[in-house]
Write a structure and sequence with these properties.
Layout lengths: L3 E3 L6 E3 L5 H25 L43 H5 L1 H8 L1
């Protein structure tokens, strides 16, 4: 992760203090934690505790439902998969935060 670079002054080489991979690793880990935290909140608010954990051969709630919205609940959908129950996560996190997640 660290390397040596030539300095433009007369000091020769010095260690490069920048670690370009750390921000990427941090954002990747943080986004996974945020998604799972939202999943737990969604399950609690909508009384769907069974959907919090992935299980073999079953779908569980996801953030965006990319490509398979018709097979499972989606956290950023205004309604649950039954089409009639409102998603209670919206009232918990607020409409502006919900709109940001939907964008």
């Amino acid at each position: 992760l660290r390397g040596e670079t030539k300095s433009s002054d007369d000091t020769g080489t010095k260690e490069n203090p920048s670690l370009p991979l750390l921000p990427t690793i941090f954002i990747t880990a943080l986004s996974s934690i945020i998604e799972h935290s939202l999943r737990l909140l969604w399950c609690y608010e909508n009384q769907r505790h069974y959907h919090c954990i992935a299980r073999a051969s079953e779908y569980y709630v996801t953030l965006d439902g990319h490509g398979q919205r018709d097979r499972h609940d989606v956290m950023i959908s205004p309604f649950l998969i039954d089409g009639t129950s409102k998603n209670k996560l919206i009232s918990l996190i607020g409409a502006p935060a919900f709109a940001m997640l939907s964008d």
